[in-house]
């Protein structure tokens, strides 16, 4: 007679089991985990043994020095944290709806994605879901990633500069990005063919801060001209400040091509060179690995992908 297949863990694991696993991951000992849950240590021990019986495997190695999770325990603690955070997020969303508040999505994006991709995605989202409130933070990738990891943002459209296997994020590449030198409309160098970086290095420059991903890319190009950076330099993380400065002077700047194109179309800036040999690399969608997206974030991601499909070949999509 064939034995019945085991019941799924979901039907047998209790909420208290998940709470204990999360507490063990946070506090590192059964005593401190029990204290955090407001129960006695023997009760926590019994709860843990019951969980191990449910999953059919030992999750921790016992020793006189205490508990140490094994591979199975690491897996269960990670997934318990994911489930706990998802339920907390669901509670916050329901509380907001119950109070009459709207659904919300918190988006972080690099400067170059704002005029090209983010604005179009938001316009599409608002057309389909007008009551979702969108919060947008524009900054460099290295400044945005900590906000995602601390759950202060739902999704990033940024570069994977700071992403390693231990970071705990998922990355989906979208668009390659080039850099160009720009100046104001009517700039003295406008219309001169064949300009390269060496031809403008002695001009006043406005650039993103030295710790930004763009400056890392530009550093070897500047060194090829014999300098570490332009001598006459303004540094700011604000693209708007750079554009305003360029409009008031003969200062030049290096900007992502999509940003430059946006201001060219407005008649504000002109391109002073072809694309530089260095590329910024792809930017794409970054989310926390294994953490389900909020309802608002799901709608936003659908909107981004719809925009990219509509752009097709013109978007220079990265294809596998």
From TrEMBL:
InterPro entries: HTH-type_LysR_regulators (IPR050950), LysR_HTH_N (IPR000847), LysR_subst-bd (IPR005119), WH-like_DNA-bd_sf (IPR036388), WH_DNA-bd_sf (IPR036390)
Gene Ontology molecular functions: DNA binding; DNA-binding transcription factor activity
Keyword Transcription: yes
One Pfam family it belongs to: HTH_1
GO cellular component, one term: cytosol
SUPFAM superfamilies on file: Periplasmic binding protein-like II, Winged helix' DNA-binding domain
Keyword annotations of the record: DNA-binding, Transcription, Transcription regulation
Domain HTH lysR-type, first and last residues per copy: 13-70
PANTHER family, sorted: HTH-TYPE TRANSCRIPTIONAL REGULATOR YBHD, NITROGEN ASSIMILATION TRANSCRIPTIONAL ACTIVATOR-RELATED
Family affiliation: Belongs to the LysR transcriptional regulatory family.
Protein name: LysR family transcriptional regulator
Species assigned in the record: Lichenibacterium ramalinae
